[in-house]
């Protein structure tokens, strides 16, 4: 058997660089392909669940439009870096050194929203060198507060001639209506089992390992159409089995290894009513580890479902998690909803 390669992260190694390589989301991807072919791209709003291919599609569109000039004409910002991680994170980004004037967050007198407006305005105002317009891609745009969104809307209007914006979000309802109406909205969903199964088989062939049909079904059940999750789990399974054929047990063992330690601690704190400890964990996951509220709820649901507790108790937990998820989608604050969930979890 060919020696498998485990040095590179497969989520990076197998990330599509062209629109035609993206699995699933044919309607949205075909629309992007037509826009790229016409060279006339409007502002875009890409929305859908976490890891459904929004960022991949945005980067692939940029590659199609700019080719070797990609880095000069395509700029990426993660809104959560500004509004969830704050100044302590921004000083580590070398792009912002001149604007901030210091690498010590304690010496920054400007507010985060002022920094955001100044940075976006400066990047949008600079005319592209070798293209008709540049693209600024803002990921996790749901973390922008109302003032930042209104400022962004004005910047989008001001620099339409030389700049296009792509906004990506898991919660479009958290964006103000004028911002949503500025762009063409494209929905992204997780990949179907059929397409993900074909993708898994292709990866197995390229990496030189065997996976049983039961192993594929177990991976499909675990990943639920999430390509990144399937790749992470599969790579861990290959390491654990030392290149042997991967079956259901190997996928299960890999999935257990993947479990985030803080999520398990949060679940345990919530079930015994240790609210103070749960709040500390939530703060650490949101701020230090960069998790979204949706991701935390998804992991909590998985742990609750596999906890082995009586059915009625698991059902109550599931309803509470679902309620928290619904409230997040209605433009509520992630932290508030997570803290409300753990406060009521053991009741």
Short descriptors:
disordered N terminus; Zinc Finger, Delta Prime, domain 3; Rossmann fold; 347 residues; single chain; globular; alpha/beta; Helicase, Ruva Protein, domain 3; 5-stranded parallel β-sheet; 3 domains
Structure commentary:
By secondary structure, the chain is an alpha/beta fold. It has three domains: about 25-185, Rossmann fold; about 190-260, Helicase, Ruva Protein, domain 3 (Orthogonal Bundle), CATH 1.10.8; about 260-345, Zinc Finger, Delta Prime, domain 3 (Up-down Bundle), CATH 1.20.272.10. Helix 12 packs parallel to helix 14, helix 15 packs across helix 17 (about 295-305) and helix 16 (about 275-290) packs antiparallel against helix 19. The model is unreliable at about 1-5 (pLDDT under 50). Helix content is about 60%, strand content about 5%. The protein has helices at about 10-15, 25-40, 55-65, 70-75, 80-85, 85-90, 95-100, 110-125, 145-160, 175-180, 195-205, 215-225, 225-240, 250-260, 260-270, 275-290, 295-305, 310-330, 335-345, and strands spanning about 45, 75-80, 135-140, 165-170, 185. A five-stranded parallel sheet has the order 2-3-4-1-5. Strand 3 (about 135-140), helix 9 (about 145-160) and strand 4 form a beta-alpha-beta unit.
């Amino acid at each position: 058997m060919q020696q498998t390669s485990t040095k590179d992260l497969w989520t990076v190694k197998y990330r599509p660089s062209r629109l035609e390589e993206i699995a699933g989301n044919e309607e949205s991807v075909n629309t992007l392909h037509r826009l790229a072919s016409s060279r006339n791209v409007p502002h875009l709003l890409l929305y859908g669940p976490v890891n459904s291919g929004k960022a991949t599609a945005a980067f692939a569109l940029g590659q199609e439009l700019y080719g070797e000039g990609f880095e000069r004409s395509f700029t990426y910002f993660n809104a959560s870096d500004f509004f969830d991680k704050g100044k302590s994170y921004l000083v580590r980004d070398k792009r912002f050194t001149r604007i901030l004037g210091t690498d010590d967050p304690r010496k920054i007198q400007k507010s985060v929203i002022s920094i955001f407006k100044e940075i976006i305005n400066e990047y949008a105002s600079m005319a592209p060198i070798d293209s008709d317009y540049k693209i600024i891609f803002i990921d996790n745009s749901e973390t922008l507060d109302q003032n930042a969104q209104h400022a962004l809307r004005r910047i989008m209007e001001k620099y339409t001639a030389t700049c296009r914006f792509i906004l990506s979000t898991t919660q479009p309802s958290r964006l103000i209506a004028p911002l949503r109406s500025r762009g063409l909205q494209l929905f992204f969903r997780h990949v179907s089992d059929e397409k993900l199964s074909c993708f898994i088989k292709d990866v197995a062939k390229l990496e030189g390992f065997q996976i049983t049909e039961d192993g594929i079904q177990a991976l499909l059940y675990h990943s639920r159409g999430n390509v990144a999750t399937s790749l992470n789990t599969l790579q861990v399974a290959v390491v654990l089995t030392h290149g042997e054929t991967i079956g259901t047990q190997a996928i299960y063992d890999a999935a257990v290894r993947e479990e985030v330690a803080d999520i398990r601690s949060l679940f345990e704190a919530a079930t015994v009513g240790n609210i103070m400890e749960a709040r500390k964990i939530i703060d650490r996951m949101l701020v230090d580890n960069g998790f979204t509220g949706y991701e935390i709820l998804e992991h909590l649901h998985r742990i609750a479902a596999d906890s082995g507790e009586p059915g009625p108790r698991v059902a109550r937990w599931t309803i509470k998690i679902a309620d928290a998820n619904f409230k997040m989608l209605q433009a509520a604050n992630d932290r508030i909803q997570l803290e409300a969930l753990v406060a009521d979890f053991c009741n």
